[in-house]
Amino acid sequence: MIIRITKGTGESKTRKSAFDHALFDAGISNYNIIKLSSVIPNNCDIVEEKVEPREDEHGHRLYVVMAEGYQTQPGKKVVAGLGWVKANHKSGRGIFIESTGTDRVDVERSIIESIKSMQSYRPDEHGEIMTKLAEVECKGDVACAIVAAVYKSEGWE
């Protein structure tokens, strides 16, 4: 399975519409989002690329691990980040962690510290910790930043 890492930012009058704008920017706005916890299944490849929306999947379920952050103070930033690490063997399995805040360095530090802690009690030897961040400055009402690990979409039939 391929897991795609996408990110987006948006602004609007309300939290919900700013979130939708960020989903639109990331290419995943016309799905019903189902949030997962932090486990990367066996046999997965991770690719960092914006998701291209597909009209034939409008309304499908979309399984994601997602970090989402909001800012309502004009001139202030919001940062959303997703980090991951995979085992150093052919299984392809691993873990994700999400973090949000107002400072890029702090969000990335939180991700790395969390993953290192999670690795400490797992038996696998892991590879390099990877991160993807989205950042936006609030210019008006509500700003939203998201980073999503997109697993798969599923129809309703």
What's the CATH architecture?
A: 3-Layer(bba) Sandwich
CATH domain fold name: Pyruvoyl-Dependent Histidine Decarboxylase, Chain B
Strand portion, in percent?
over 45%
Number of strands: 9
Number of domains: 1
The largest beta-sheet arranges its strands as: 2-5-9-1-4
| H and E string | EHEEEEEEHEE
Largest sheet properties: 5 strands, mixed
Task: Describe the model.
With 157 residues, the protein is an alpha+beta fold. It has a single domain, classed as Pyruvoyl-Dependent Histidine Decarboxylase, subunit B (Pyruvoyl-Dependent Histidine Decarboxylase, Chain B, 3-Layer(bba) Sandwich). The chain is built from two helices and nine strands, in the order βαββββββαββ. It is flat and about 45 Å long. The two termini are 21 Å apart.
Throw out a few tags for this protein:
4-stranded antiparallel β-sheet; 2 helices; alpha+beta; 157 residues; flat; single chain
Short description:
The chain is of the alpha+beta class and 157 residues long. The protein has helices spanning 15-26, 104-120; strands spanning 2-12, 32-35, 39-40, 45-48, 61-71, 77-86, 94-101, 130-137, 142-154.
